[in-house]
């Protein structure tokens, strides 16, 4: 009887996710907030709490995190990561300081402890690569001159996450300063080793997993990703980081084929992950943290707009491009929930989960909407200042197309996570 109930619950959850996904497509918004709401509805304190399928959903959620980070890693090659780290370091550090500070400060002011402060700083810092990639594609911004600036910031954030997650894991586990230093050293050594393998022996890895059969390739890639993620977790590095590094090690046509094969699985298990996070959050605990979430969301909007403006200005991009860059960086989503999930699972402050859920809900919805309003607002700003044409379009420019002050010319090398949108 219990097995019958499991099938009914799983079928109902997956069908509900499909309907919510269709609704998000209808209104051109990210499905992540809707999946979180579904988790709230199916969890403790919700309207239809699950009783027998939570263990399966928990396992699926872990796979969802791993596949999210693996497919993100597929978007980059090791040389691209090294080059991007060098070129985007100044803007990336500005991004880190401006956006992590509000979260850290809020947790310390609320007296939640150092571990919760580090977790909340990560939650307010990192942009949702998935939602941003979709926004860039949907709005036709992939060819704009500011797009490589946005992508370089996303790559920098991903690299920071590779170092951040082991530190957070050590703090949550109570390892102390020495234990945290050891964990960070292991993480740095692991990242360096994988990057070395990707740079020097990438073809060997590709030959190992390559196959003319899609079925065999899928099994090899998925098995290798889960295996490395599990080993990374044993080393206290984080399964998510391990999966991300496996993605980096694969490149070229093989990476493209692997992405195409794994995308349906990724989408399914990622949706399960967002539901599982919602399951762990009691909706009755949301109202007490809504004020803090709204304040952090406002800080997040202002700090990301400032980040995009500064980074695009350094690249010689005009005002509309600066505004678009900032607006593209606003959404929060998958990685923010991953961080909150790690903290909640480790027993951090009980209010951290509801706060993260409310924060992500607000910015995952407002981010894409703000991006749509960015260009009209930029043109209005230019008209009021009495300069520029405020032209739009992928090849329109404020000034000469492709010039130093231009904005809309085709962006050389505009690749990376936007391609996954």
From TrEMBL:
Q: Does the keyword Chaperone apply?
A: no
Instruction: Write the record's keywords in alphabetical order, separated by commas.
Output: Membrane, Transmembrane, Transmembrane helix, Transport
Q: Which GO terms describe its biological process?
A: proton transmembrane transport
> Where found, per UniProt?
Membrane
Q: Composition bias, kind Gly residues: at what positions? A: 399-411
Q: Which segments show compositional bias classed as Low complexity?
A: 412-421
Membrane spanning residue stretches:
6-25, 32-50, 56-76, 96-127, 172-201, 221-249, 261-279, 291-312, 333-350, 356-374
The UniProt GO MF terms for this protein read: antiporter activity
In which broad location class does this protein mainly occur, judging by the first location in its UniProt entry? membrane
Q: Name one Pfam family in it.
A: Na_H_Exchanger
Family annotation (InterPro entries): Cation/H_exchanger_TM, Na+/solute_symporter_sf
A GO term from the CC aspect: membrane
For membrane topology, the record states: Multi-pass membrane protein
- Domain (Cation/H+ exchanger transmembrane) spans 15-369
Start and end residues of each stretch annotated as Disordered: 387-421
Instruction: Please give the family membership noted in the entry.
Output: Belongs to the monovalent cation:proton antiporter 2 (CPA2) transporter (TC 2.A.37) family.
Protein name as annotated: Potassium transporter
Species this chain originates from: Dactylosporangium sucinum
